[in-house]
Specification:
The complex is a heterodimer of chains A (about 525) and B (about 300).
Chain A (H helix, E strand, L loop, with lengths): L18 H6 L15 E6 L14 H7 L7 E3 L6 E3 L2 E7 L4 E6 L13 H12 L13 E8 L2 E6 L6 H4 L10 H6 L5 H10 L7 E7 L3 E6 L18 E6 L3 H9 L5 E2 L4 H9 L3 E16 L16 H9 L3 H9 L4 E2 L22 H10 L6 E8 L3 H15 L3 E8 L1 H9 L5 E6 L7 H7 L2 H8 L5 H10 L5 H18 L2 E14 L2 E2 L2 E2 L5 E2 L4 E2 L2
Helix pairs in contact in A: 9-11, 10-12, 16-17
Chain B lengths: L2 H29 L4 H6 L5 H10 L6 H13 L13 H36 L4 H15 L2 H15 L12 H35 L2 H8 L4 H38 L5 H11 L2 H29 L6
Helix pairs in contact in B: 1-12, 5-6, 5-8, 5-10, 5-12, 6-8, 7-8, 7-10, 8-10, 9-10, 10-11, 10-12, 11-12
Classes of the chains: A alpha+beta (about 525), B mainly alpha (about 300).
């Protein structure tokens, strides 16, 4: 999900959490230090969820917590690159990659006590792939039919081999819901039922939502029927209760953490990370993420208002990239917690290019390229940005000063979020601040938005390269991993050279906990896992 | 005109006011660039998704139709469904309004409890050290931004001394009071300064009035003179001032509620504007307008009681 909006300012990257935590997450077989059962953990979030329907919702505030309530057939591995068992224990590709046979886990129950049936799986997947439903049905558009061959086996018949299918079955939108409970929800239409169901959602996940005061808090209780076991053979989750406290103000969340009123908080501002690292009562965690920060460059010959657009010249775009000292931007905005980009996708995204940072700072080269493009005397550009977002302002003002060195004058236009989105969709901008996080452990999602023109005109930049479109379509059906890797290598090289964005940096997710609150995991896609979280007495 | 008839006419006068406010906010909300679909779908949704959600939310209908639907829902005492939260607006506001009312109420009580006695002390010791000290301290209150005062109080009383919680609202009535105390003090800060200065000035002018000299000359004890003659007359202007400030208190609640993580309507209003959640913006504006109007009415009633000449 794109989160260059109000979310963006609170993200960060850098070091990591001990590998031990990563390895134990979601892996009941791994050994872990004695966890404590029972009790409540309070975790502070900057904004409340809106709509807990995996198919119809589309905001990170929903996506990142829905895995506490709903399970998927497969689940992302903690490092976010592969998949592991979920509600399915076995998956076998057949028919030349055009059929996927899934064996369902025995004895799984929904939080209302009813057993998970193959028909629930079929109904949930059919609902998720219905083109009329939500923003995500494209992710599993390769499914032609879902067939139940016996009570514990579901076969997905595909239109074509699809290398993204397995990670897609681990994505939130393919969460499995109970068909009967959904049908029994009040309401005359599907939409009304979805609204009613999502208020008291029922899933097979570790927790169930029992109270929700919107904008204030969510209270989740442990699902007594949850199927996953801890290393000691006892059922997960450890916690009896998980409370999400909604606290929009960064400073207030941190004060509450220091005062011990909450156990953990998301989105610690970059500027506070060092301070919290030094606090002996707290533990600062920086989870590897797929978040990238960049500026979109509009590349068509004319702007929406009819003016000539110098950014249509690739040399100008390259010059702008060379003129920015990424390390300095990282030092100023993220206090050193970010890493320069090596591609348009994060280094945590599978198949991402890892040949070192792109466009190393070279002001002389930038000047020469500008002169070649016919702008030896400089030029004026404008950028739209999100008002009130400190990180975006830091990025832009730093870039503004660096560009001034090569004669580029940058005008900054601050907008609120809906205005900015409307201008973006209308392709009425020259440059635009943005950030992105992947929702699937595969490069296809980000590529379809950033590079593949037919989807959204390459981030509405208007940039189109036939070879990139071809490569993307081929890679979407390529089941040979080596060939797919080669396709992505070529595609990323073309993209980097054409520079339809200003490459900035990638950052980790900064979360902080009290010393006695342990076991939380955030995967690179952003999802929060509390199933193995616990609070020591 | 009898008191009853006066009250009825005052209430009737409010109706066109609310109609105008409703109409204005309806139009103004839609003049903002972008809409709820842009806020909800963000950068990601396909054109079809945008079209579908626009239809679902009824935003594809003409402005006239939308206005009719809005007016109809208001007359039925409902305000439609929140576009962002997808639950009835009335439920959303019913959950949040008591919180803000309690916060504002506590702020007024605290402001008066601080300002009334100190204004007396300052006026009676005019230009001597107690007066200078009180005025100096309140000058700081008057000139400090609310969010800053809030953060300082939080750091000192909640994070260091741990006397009060950092934020939230609690579950029981006693917890509500406990949780709202620091935010209410924050909100009361500038109001108490204004009230103190104003009341001090009125006391100084009243205290020199002939009827006060006369009361003293009658041999009344000075406490009786102060309470019955000085305070009562000096309060008239103060009551008006407090009444007029209820609107800005509700405005200040927006910031206070954010800093202290208090789930009131102020925060809801800000969130709704950023989400272009028209039904919530409209309903909240109307509810706040009604509250402010009622506060003005109460102000007038109190004034009548203090000064029987008013309203005749």
């Amino acid at each position: 999900m794109d989160n260059g909006s109000s979310v963006g300012r609170r993200f960060v990257l850098g070091g990591g959490v001990g590998l031990a935590t990563l390895a134990t997450m979601g892996m009941p077989t791994a050994a872990r230090a004695a966890a404590v059962r029972g009790g409540r953990m309070v975790y502070a979030r900057y904004a409340d969820s809106l709509f807990l329907d995996p198919v119809l919702s589309d905001a990170n505030v929903d996506i990142w917590v829905m895995n506490s309530i709903y399970d998927t057939l497969l689940m992302p591995t903690p490092e976010g690159i592969g998949v592991q068992e979920g509600l399915a224990t076995k998956w076998v590709l057949g028919d030349g990659g055009k059929a996927l046979t899934l064996t369902l886990r025995e004895g799984v129950k929904f939080s209302d006590g009813t057993p998970l049936k193959a028909s629930d799986v079929k109904w949930s997947l059919d609902r998720a792939r219905n083109p009329k439903n939500g923003a995500w049905n494209e992710m599993i558009a390769s499914i032609d039919a879902v067939e139940i061959t016996d009570p514990s086996t579901v076969v997905l018949k595909l239109k074509h081999p699809d290398p993204t299918l397995l990670p897609a079955l681990a994505m939130f939108n393919t969460g499995i819901l109970p068909q009967a409970a959904f049908a029994a929800a009040p309401g005359a239409t599907e939409d009304e039922k979805a609204k009613a169901f999502a208020e008291k959602p029922i899933g097979t996940g570790p927790f169930m939502l029992t109270e929700w005061q919107r904008g204030q808090r969510m209270l989740l209780k442990r699902n007594p029927h949850y199927w996953k076991k801890a290393p000691d053979g006892q059922p997960l989750p450890y916690l009896d209760e998980l409370e999400f406290a909604i606290i929009p103000d960064d400073a207030t969340r941190i004060l509450k953490l220091k005062a011990g009123e909450i156990h953990g908080t998301e989105f610690v501002p970059y500027s506070r990370v060092k301070e919290l690292q030094a606090d002996k009562n707290l533990r600062m965690e920086l989870w590897p993420s797929t978040r990238v920060a960049y500026l979109t460059l509009y590349v068509r010959d004319k702007l929406k208002n009819g003016q000539d657009n110098p950014l249509s010249n690739v040399k100008v775009r390259q010059a702008l990239n060379y003129a920015v000292n990424k390390d300095a931007v990282i030092a100023i905005t993220t206090l050193g917690l970010g890493k320069p980009l090596q591609s348009f996708m994060s280094s945590s995204t599978p198949l991402s290019r890892k040949d070192g940072p792109v466009y190393r700072y070279d002001p002389a080269k930038a000047k020469a390229l500008l002169a070649e493009a016919g702008f030896a005397n400089g030029l004026e550009l404008s950028c739209i940005a999100l008002a009130g977002n400190q990180d975006e302002m830091n990025n832009l003002t730093t870039v503004q000063q660096m560009w001034a060195q090569i004669g580029v004058r940058l005008k900054i236009e601050l907008l609120d979020n809906p205005t900015r989105t409307a201008r973006y969709r209308a392709e009425d901008f020259q440059m635009r601040t943005a950030a992105w996080t992947d929702d699937i452990a595969d490069p296809s999602e980000i590529t379809s938005y950033f590079a593949y023109y037919p989807n959204i005109h390459a981030l509405h930049s208007g940039w189109e390269e036939k070879r990139v479109n071809e490569l993307f379509l081929q890679s979407q059906q390529e089941v040979d991993p080596a060939k797919r890797q080669a396709q992505y290598a070529e595609l990323q090289k073309i993209y980097v050279d054409a520079a339809p964005i200003l490459f900035l940096y990638e950052t980790p997710y900064p979360v902080a906990f009290r010393g006695n609150a342990k076991g939380f995991v955030q995967i690179p896609l952003g999802n929060n896992y509390f199933e193995a979280a616990y609070v020591e007495k | 005109m009898s008191r009853g008839a006066w009250l009825v006419s005052r209430l009737l006068q409010m109706v066109p006011t609310f109609l105008l406010i409703g109409l204005a906010v309806f139009v103004l909300a839609r003049l903002l660039p972008g809409n709820a679909v842009m806020a909800l779908l963000g950068d990601r949704g396909s054109d079809e998704a945008v079209a579908r959600l626009t239809r679902q939310l009824g935003l594809d209908q003409s402005i006239g139709m939308q206005l009719l639907a809005f007016l109809e829902s208001v007359l039925r005492g409902q305000f439609g469904t929140s576009l962002a939260f997808r639950i009835p607006v009335t439920r959303l506001i019913a959950e949040r309004l008591p919180v803000t009312l309690m916060l504002t109420g506590m702020a007024i009580v605290i402001a008066l409890a601080l300002a009334l006695p100190l204004a007396f002390v300052a006026a009676l010791k005019v230009n001597r050290w107690p007066d200078l000290l009180i005025r100096g301290v309140f000058q700081v209150g008057l000139s400090s931004p609310i969010f800053y005062v809030g953060l300082v109080l939080l750091t000192v009383f909640a994070a260091w001394l741990r006397i009060f919680p950092v934020g939230g609202y609690g579950d029981t009535f006693a917890e509500h009071i406990y949780h709202l105390f620091l935010p209410a003090v924050t909100l009361a800060f500038s109001l108490s300064a204004i009230v103190m200065r104003n009341l001090r000035a009125s006391i100084l002018s009243v205290i020199r009035a002939e009827y006060v000299d006369f009361a003293r000359a009658k041999g009344l004890r000075s406490r009786v003179v102060l309470l019955r003659h000085v305070l009562r007359n000096a309060l008239i202007a103060t009551v008006t001032l407090v009444g007029l400030h209820i609107g800005s208190l509700l405005g200040g609640a927006v910031i206070t509620e954010t800093v202290f993580a208090v789930p009131g309507v102020g925060r809801l209003m800000v969130d709704s504007i950023f989400a272009r959640d028209y039904p919530v913006i409209q309903a909240l504006t109307l509810v706040l307008a009604v509250l402010v109007s009622l506060a003005f009415l109460v102000t007038d009633l109190v004034q009548m009681w203090l000064d029987p000449r008013v309203g005749r």
